[in-house]
Amino acid sequence: MWGFYFEQLVQSIPFFLKGLWMTVAVSGSSLVAGTVIGFAWGIIRAGKGRVLKRIIGGWVDLIRGTPFLVQIFIVFFILPEAGIQLEAFPAAVIALTNLSACFICEIVAGGILAIPSGQREAATASGLSSYHQLRYIVLPQAMRIILPPLVGQYVLLIKDSSVVSAIGVTDVTRAGWLTVQRIPEGIMVFGLVGILYFVICYPLIRLSNTMEKRMTVVTTRL
């Protein structure tokens, strides 16, 4: 019987690959948009504007402090009551973009604030504007701090994307749930789901580890 189920699972691989592509599409779109928004929010969070800092900080704390499943249900099920009707895919992208932006915001703000204030003071004394200080002095140094945890956060967010299956997006996780109804060998089916997530995440894990090692070496030399 196990051999029969395995053969059935092999025949289902094209379906899983479609789910894998959907996972990549949702995650990739969300991470690109979330990175852009998160960097903008992070720069504001590390700046001097108190009102914007508090607004963004409150939103970030709210999103980070509530389950992603609740957030995606609000986007998909509650917003239509306010007249905003969304299909499953855009709803998933919007919810995951917001989640990724909030986490990336904190990483970026932390990296910028880690730069010694003396760097800014020296730049100000040299006559550089706030924009040029950020572009040429602060961000180039902060990126060495930001990049390792940023890539690690990407891995976590890709795994969080499995929640989008709850609103009907046929990603890898949903492909597993649909397949296990035909092939009642949960370990076999979801073992394949885990392997497919690992295929996506492992290169990013290696990249994050490499960046952390290089940053440690640079810091030691300094």
Structure description:
The chain is mainly alpha-helical and 222 residues long. It has a single domain, classed as MetI-like (MetI-like fold), CATH 1.10.3720.10. The protein has 9 helices and no strands. Helix 4 (68-78) crosses helix 5 (88-113), helix 6 runs antiparallel to helix 7 (130-160) and helix 7 runs antiparallel to helix 9 (186-221). The mean pLDDT is 88.
Q: TL;DR of this structure?
A:
The protein is an all-alpha fold and 222 residues long.
Total strands: the figure is 0
Strand content: under 5%
Question: Radius of gyration over alpha carbons?
Answer: 21 Å
**Distance, first to last CA:** 62 Å
| CATH architecture level-2 label | Orthogonal Bundle
Keywords:
9 helices; mainly alpha; MetI-like fold; single chain
Please write out the topology.
Layout lengths: L1 H10 L1 H33 L4 H15 L3 H11 L9 H26 L3 H9 L4 H31 L11 H9 L5 H36 L1
